[in-house]
Each structure stands twice: as structure tokens, then as C-alpha cells.
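[stage:ingest] chain + small molecule (beta-D-fructofuranose)
[stage:ingest] validated
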Amino acid sequence: MLTTNGIQQATEAVEQAKKKVNNRHRLGYHIMAPANWINDPNGLVQFKGEYHVFYQHHPYDENWGPMHWGHVKSLDLVNWEHLPIALAPEDACDKDGCFSGSAVDNDGELTLIYTGHHYIDKERDLFYQNQNIAVSTDGVHFKKVVENPVIEKPPADSSHHFRDPKVWKRGRDWYMIVGNSKNNIGRVILYRSPNLRNWEYIGVLAEGNEQLGYMWECPDFFELNGKHVLLMSPQGIKEAGDHFKNLFQTGYMIGEYEYDKNKFGHGEFIELDYGHDFYAVQTFLDDKNRRIAIGWMDMWESDMPTKKDGWCGALTLPRELTLSADGKIKMVPVAEVTQLREKKLSAIENQTITSSYEMGVQGSMFEVEAVLEVTNAEKVELVLRGIENEATVLAYDKSTNKLRLDCSKSGKKKDGIRRVKLAASDQLKLRIFVDRSSIEVFINEGEATMTSRIYPTEPYRSVEFTSCSGKSLLKKATCWKLKDIWNEK
Ligand code: FRU
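[stage:predict] done
[stage:export] C-alpha cells:
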């Protein structure tokens, strides 16, 4: 199959741009483009035994612009390989952007379902959006189908926001949900198809209210431990205490769904992560029957200092989702992630901390696994200490059961703090993944997560546990140096 001009040009542009990338904040084990801008993960799928991840990509610039689909694949969800750009916006169906979407394996044909973006008046951000399909048998070269757009426009009562199709199969039918809004209220609408080409509009699967935002981006809908989960990324939810602190959120609703009635009875909207940088999350089911999620590890309109370095944007570690007994999603890194452990840097057991204990760890890419008992102390802290007064600090306050992530001295000067309230307990289990410009904190085996980009100027000099106003017990703590899968340095 011939690659189109747009794809060839874009792939070459990235190759060129790569030469100018400054590596200082480049991540070592997260998905990024070789150069220039990326945002949402797209088209997560397993195809012919390999994991494929696509992403929103501007191959020509470190800022968002005409969206292409970048592409990586992996055999193990840990070691990723860049492939040529998969989609370029160069056809009548997607003239101003190939926006987010999903992928399915249709009997050996890898099918991408994505949104075509079309400006009516770019200056005034007037646009329309439609849904399109591209197919591939080799999993590398994609051809847009002649039936495009497969859905030309949204239902009559809809706004112009009509994007981010997520497709799945049930029995003989294909289903698609699309992010949408009506009268400035976010909603998700549902279609059905026998063949991925002809789609029938079924109706609204779920809709919000004034509190739940004006538009729901990147919807996903799946079964988890016998329940149905609607995952989406609403725009326009107002901050409330420790909640909804980012510009936009990703969260979910759990419920029961009746396919024959298109009826989704569900609970409240719950945030999925409590850090600064976690958005547009998408999931897929792999051949081990795991529901795996990957998100964009940034947030619209945040400071993104790597733009100066010729690249911008990354995806989170792949995370496995399960449902807890109290109806909340638990997220842990997929088991394969332990393959990143290159060397044990430090390990300790049953260490009483009266004031401070230093792990003897230095570096910029490491994992810390720790179990703490906080019986007597008021607060325990984990300080990643950098040069001068740089630091990233996690602090657990026993009286409130809140864990605080403070990145104000590691590149997030304004609004550097996030908090999450945990179930009351004397024990705190942490798994922390530090990369050159990110931190992902997995708390109590998935009870909560906090994901943020951080920008220390130099590798961390030490990892310290501190106990305030009383003793704590470090039951176990291990630190590993993690592998650089890109080996760019
Ligand atoms: C979410 C999003 C999607 C859209 C894409 C454009 O971050 O706004 O709704 O398809 O990014 O790049």
C-alpha cells in the first residue's frame, strides 16, 4: 500500500525535528512522539499479538495544530517502538484534523474510527465534525475508506461538538459512542452498525446537568466486574474543595445498562486521578481479559516547558482497572511494568523513623515502593530532594487521612498542590514512578492515583522519609532504578 503524501511528509518532518530536541526533560519509559506536540491517546488495541497505541500529534510543531495520528507498538506494554504516522488530515472528510478516536480488530483488518474536524471560520473557532474510518491489514499503513464520512453529522438537537468515537462489538453488532453536547450540557450519544460503515442513531446513552460540564470529551463505555462504566472527560466542571482542580477532568459513572432499552442507570461522577496531568483517558480489553487504561499526561493550557525543547506531551503508564467492593475504580500499573526495574538501589525493612530517614537514592528515573505505618505520628512525608531548594513532596496527614502531592518546588510554581482523601487507615502503601519530568503515585493498591508532570532541573539527590510529631514505622521500602526504553541520552 502506498503511503500518502501527507503521511510521508509528516513522518519526515518528525525525523527532522527529532534532531533539534533537547533531551533534558525527555521521559525514559513513557510514550511520547520523537518530537513535537502530542495529546490524547487514541486507538488502543491489540492486533496480531501486538499492542498498538496511537496519539493526537502535530508533527510540524511543538504546539497543538492540525491533528495527525502518531503511532507506537509494543509486545509487552513496556518497550515501545515508533511507527510511521498513521493518519494525516489531507482528505475532504477530515480536512482540518484527524481528531481522537478508537480502534478495533475487525477480523484481521485493523480499523481506526476517528473524528474529522472542519473549520467553517477558524478565527472564530466555528467548526463542524464528522466520523470516519481508516483500515489496515499490516497494522502500519492505513487507507481511509470510500464511505467516509461514515457519520456525516450529529442528531438535529445536538451542538457542533461531535467527536471522539469509541467503538466496540457486542454479538454481531458494532456500537459507537460519541462525545457530544446539547444546550451546553455534556452528553454521550450511541450508534449501532452491522458492518462499521452504516450507522444507525440509537439515542442518548447518558447526559449531565449544569454541574457536570458543557461538553463530554473522549467517552468510553465498558463492563468491569459485572457493572457498566461510562468513562469520560468533561469540560467545564467547577472546582469544589480538593476536587476538580484541573482545567478539565477525567472521571466515570458506574451503573447498570440495558442494551435493548438503551437505559443506563448510574451513580455520581467520580474523578479518576487526583494529580495535575491526567486527561482524555481511553481503555481497551486485552487478550488476558484486562481492562487497560492510558491517559494523556498533561492538561490543556498548563505550562509546558518542554515546548522550548522541541517536544511536548506524553502518555501515562498503562494501568489495569478493577472495581472495588464500594463501587470505585482501582488503578494499578500493569504487571509488566516491573520489567522496567533495572537495578535495586536501596531496600529497608522495619525501620522506625523518629525524624528523618534517607534511602540513599539519586537519579531521575526510579520507582519507590513503600509500606508505612503511621500509628503515632501526625504526618509522614516522602521528600524527593533536588538541587538547591527543589523538591517534590508527598505528605500524609493522619488527622484528615489526606495525601498531598506538592510540586510547587518542582516546576509547578502556581497551583502546585493536589490532595486526595483516603479511607481512614494507619497504613499507607505507595508505589511511585518518577521519570525525568513526571510522577505517578499509586496509593493503597489502586485506591487513588495522582499523576503530575514535574520539571526538576537536575536529577534528584535524595529520597527521604520524615515523620512529624511522633514515630512512624517504615515496614518496607524499596527503590529501583528504572530502564530507559528510548535510550535517547
Ligand atoms: C481532548 C480533545 C478531543 C479532541 C482532541 C483534539 O483532549 O479535545 O476532544 O478530539 O483533543 O486534539
